[in-house]
Amino acid sequence: MTTATSSRALEHPTRDQIRLEAVLHALADPVRLRIVRDMARERAELSCSYFDLPVTKSTTTHHFRVLREGGVIRQTYRGTAKLNALREDDLEALFPGLLATVLAAADAQVTREDATA
């Protein structure tokens, strides 16, 4: 892992440190997948408060940490806000088509679930 340079800096794996198993683990949870789908749809840095998740604040923090440590997102502080961005370029360079395929499959699953509801 890269080292944090201040108390406000967050540790992120470098591109070369991102492992497929960590990415798949991060994407395997429904709440984390929902976060990634929202980020991919918005295509912008989003604050943690943007996400309306059905879990406690401490669990939300855990989900974002798993995504960050897995190399799926980059988190940075801007003032008091923690902003989140997908590491699309890194993931595409390492695992071509993986993120797009997972997101398409997740969208298809939501469509199927909506049709049966």
Structural features, described:
Helices cover 52% and strands 12% of the residues. The chain has 5 helices and 3 strands. The protein has a 3-stranded antiparallel β-sheet. It starts with 19 loop residues before the first helix and ends with a helix.
CATH topology annotation: Arc Repressor Mutant, subunit A
Please give the CATH class: Mainly Alpha
What's the number of extended β-strand segments? 3
Second CATH tier, the architecture: Orthogonal Bundle
Give the neighbour order of strands across the main sheet.
1-3-2
Per DSSP, the total helix count is 5
Shape: globular
Biggest sheet character: 3 strands, antiparallel
**Helix fraction by DSSP (H/I, runs of at least 4):** 40-55%
**Cα Rg:** 14 Å
* Chain-averaged pLDDT: 91
Find the structural class using helix and strand composition. mainly alpha
The SSE order reads: HHEHEEHH
User: Which spans have pLDDT < 50 for at least 5 consecutive residues?
Assistant: none
CATH superfamily: Winged helix-like DNA-binding domain superfamily/Winged helix DNA-binding domain
Total domain count? 1
End-to-end CA span = 43 Å
β-strand amount: 5-15%
